[in-house]
Amino acid sequence: xxxxxxxxxxxxxxxxxxxxxxxxxxxxxxxxxxxxxxxxxxxxxxxxxxxxxxxxxxxxxxxxxxxxxxxxxxxxxxxxxxxxxxxxxxxxxxxxxxxxxxxxxxxxxxxxxxxxxxxxxxxxxxxxxxxxxxxxxxxxxxxxxxxxxxxxxxxxxxxxxxxxxxxxxxxxxxxxxxxxxxxxxxxxxxxxxxxxxxxxxxxxxxxxxxxxxxxxxxxxxxxxxxxxxxxxxxxxxxxxxxxxxxxxxxxxxxxxxxxxxxxxxxxxxxxxxxxxxxxxxxxxxxxxxxxxxxxxxxxxxxxx
Length: 304
Hints:
Strand order of the largest sheet: 2-1-6-5-4-3
Radius of gyration: 51 Å
CATH topology of the domain at 35-155: Beta-Lactamase
Helix content: 55-70%
Distance between the termini: 49 Å
């Protein structure tokens, strides 16, 4: 596997891991804090505020809690759920539209807490879970019972939560877009890292083939730039060495060619009988001997 492929694969693994972790975190958060529960509680808080304002005047006029609940149910058919009137201090149920909880304390039936002045929580009756919320009266002159509006609650897994289903498609699209953009950026980064190294590798192959004129561009990261500078310096040294070798061979050839020419000429004259007199033969032999000695000295100098 090439370096470029390894870098790209490592980037993809990091990107996919990050996207998977983000998706898993979102799933956990949605499961731990279901949007359906928050929506129901918010609606109940608003309805409790409306009912609280409707019952304020009748309660101050001495109307019983049971009559107030029946009156509100008759005049507000759109009010879904269960209505309770409780004592603010003890949470004792004074009236219940379901007719089951009168006289019992809401704090004993389930979990509850105060959030921004509203009493919020849940309880279970006869196997049915109820979410409830209150909204305290505003500017009350005298203490009056507190309204509780409750609604049946069937916990829905996060993957069936309508809000989650609405968010799922945008999340998938955003994740895929982020993945594609990240892959593109990873490819660009990988290319910027490997391209200078590819230039060096190609130049090294051409130098090995005998083309010593190669110069690679100095680009990329600091380490890659340093490698390119060192490579160019090495290539320059190789070119200088090759030039020196050519000059050396030319000089050696010239120095050896002169005595060889003399030796060849006088030897051919002796062979062809052009030199017949003994003195001329000795002179030719002396020249041949001297030139051979000269060549021997040149060879010795080269070896040294």
